[in-house]
Amino acid sequence: MHICSTDIDNLDKLTRVNLINSLSGFKSANLIGTADKRGQENLSIVSSVFHIGANPPLIGMIIRPHSVPRHTLENIIETGVYTINHVHNEIIEQAHQTSARYDKHISEFDAVGLQAQYKGSCKAPFVLQSKLKIAVKLMSTQTIELNQTELVIGQITDIYLEDDLAYCDDGFVDLERLNTVALSGLDRYHSTSAITRLSYAKCDKPLSHITIPPKVKDQKEP
Amino acid sequence: MHICSTDIDNLDKLTRVNLINSLSGFKSANLIGTADKRGQENLSIVSSVFHIGANPPLIGMIIRPHSVPRHTLENIIETGVYTINHVHNEIIEQAHQTSARYDKHISEFDAVGLQAQYKGSCKAPFVLQSKLKIAVKLMSTQTIELNQTELVIGQITDIYLEDDLAYCDDGFVDLERLNTVALSGLDRYHSTSAITRLSYAKCDKPLSHITIPPKVKDQKEP
């Protein structure tokens, strides 16, 4: 099946949105927690969180214009901080429901049945139920002129992992142990099964399969 | 477990890379096909392809500086076109092996055992073995000053789907039918199992579970 530019142009809006959203492959599913200066909380599911770099530890996301997460963007700009919280298999419906167009004075935490949690000095709320939570300091926002979406880049300042055993001694986090889900298209949620972990690729050496290394906690408590 | 900024700063390089790469959640696994003006081919696995918008159909990716995919970036800038090819469960090792630092005159297609394929007027090679292939026209590149990575944005011009039955009549593409894989961290590959597909969220209406709609081809051939 070949779908060309003209075919894409001729699709009705919803079909086009479903199709194009499917093309990048599997996506991350994260809840972005924010609050405005007065403490009014907001929570929004975002499927476009992506890794930018490890040193400094930078993470990016795309926020669509004129859509619900606009409150998210306003709060991030107002306070300079936000949280990223992994969605796991037991909070999928609550997470998805945050994409409804709630008024700004309504906290999506209350509306969908998730609990805000404050940790350390971070002014933005975390999701209590999430098992991997990240505090992020805003570094830059910029408008992508091609379609007026916003690229938001932040630096990771704190990582909270609710299950020590998911942290491996080489730094790898076992997302399957946390039941973190993946997204496809706009609205389909998936659990995952590990196929393999592969060694660093070299030109002159065959790949090997890495067993997930011993967990940090295992070593501490032999 | 709490990992703060200082802890992150004190990690050795590899541990830090593994940890920070795990935090965004599941990632897409795509092979980027390019050629330079003289036709020298390059193929590179990229885990940072993400959706930017449906109208126009834009797709983004992050290319690290001074790393193997630099040939990819050079070719994209030289020719203005590239292909994005989903990685499925049967080509994981070949796909991962493209991340080795091959010299520019070596085609990763040959080195890893994948086959270049040309379709339509696209000057960049597709991966024959991939089941979902996209031709992309370069729209912009920009350096992210925070860490000197490059944000590459392209417009989708052609979509090739090797299994018509994966295309649903509402535009959704069934990635599980294509056995497209997800990535976590730097190097772990996962298959997926659908949990649910959820309806568009509204403030005043409960969510419903959507069954994957009848496939386009089913309707054409009743």
UniProtKB/TrEMBL annotation, chains A, B:
The Flavin reductase like domain, residue ranges: 25-175
Cofactor: FMN
Entry keyword Flavoprotein: yes
GO function terms (MF aspect): FMN binding; oxidoreductase activity, acting on the CH-NH group of donors, NAD or NADP as acceptor
Superkingdom to which the source organism belongs: Bacteria
Keywords: Flavoprotein, FMN
The UniProt record lists the keyword Flavoprotein: yes
Family: Belongs to the flavoredoxin family.
Record-linked PANTHER family: FLAVIN REDUCTASE LIKE DOMAIN-CONTAINING PROTEIN, FLAVOPROTEIN OXYGENASE
Official protein name in the record: Flavin oxidoreductase
